[in-house]
Amino acid sequence: MPLDMLDRLGLDPGTRTIGELMQEREWAVGEIRRLRADVGRLSRKHEATRIEREIAEEGVDAKHLDPALNAQRLIRLAEVATMLGVGRSTIYKHVAEGTFPAPIKVGFRSVRWKLSEVLAWRARVSE
Q: Where are the domains of the chain?
C-alpha cells in the first residue's frame, strides 16, 4: 500500500470510495498549506538576510561618506518586519505598547520607520 501522497493521488479514483478521496483531498490541501508556509518562512529569512547585507554595505559606505544620511533613512513596514523576523501586527502591538519606535507618517496611508531607531531597538532587545 503506497504511503506517499503523490502515489495515493496517482491511483485510479474508481477503486476508492468517496470518503477515501475526500480524505486524500484534505491531506493534499494540508500539505500544500504547510509547504506554502515553509516557502514563505524561507523567503522572509532570505529577504531579511538580503536587507541586512544591504544595510551593512550601505552602512560601510555611509560611514565614510555621510553618517547622517544612513541615520535618517526611512524603511517600510515590510522591511522592518523582515529585519526583525516578526509579523506586521506584532510591530504595531509593540508600537501601541510604547516599546517600539513610532512610525513617521509620510502620506495619507503611508508610514515609515527610521532605520537607525529600528537598529537601535533591535540591539537593545538582543542584549
A: 1-65, 72-127
